[in-house]
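This week, study the protein below.
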Amino acid sequence: MVGSRTRQPLFLCSPPELKELDSSENRMTAPSTAPERLDHFALFGLPRKLWIEMAGLEQRFLQLSWKLHPDNFINAPVEEQERSLKRSSEVNDAYRVLRDPVARVEYMLEIEGARKEGEHKQQAPPELLEEVFELNESLDELREAKEDGGDLAALKSRLESAGKGFQEKLGEVDQQLQIAAQQWDAAVETNAGDNDRKAIMVRLNKLLNRRSYIRNLVNNVQKELQ
């Protein structure tokens, strides 16, 4: 899966809109001129790269969560309390996305303007059309057999075999995503041109669409085999 490789811990700096805890008042303050919202990577002080060291990410999450804890704002004005709650929600959302390898890729493409929510294509890859057709036939036959009280053993065995094949294809897509993620990170590190970055994002998008389609097939198989 994307993000599973062991990496040296990343240096996680404080996001610019947050100050350190004010020990004299036992609370944290945020300047009124701070931007309303940072993207998830910037919030954790990270570059827009797809390899993230998980221990470092978790440590930074705990630091930010502690700074934004309601106990630190007991004596703060109501406006500041509300702002801290909003920031805390943003930190939780960012952590949830960044800790998930696939969600991380999707989010990076969204903030780069290369992927829009609700526009994910769910088309069968051309080379899989025959296998998808056979799988759907097997699913329909199993559903009918369940309704009619027929013998399910042979149908389930065939469906399990097909499901295993698509599960392997899902693993292959994850490996390809891993390679494309490495290419993206290299482009960021070398400050590659827009054309190179766009080409990588196009590939990442296609792989995500392919993964989503195959994952749905696998889920359908597992659902019917329950």
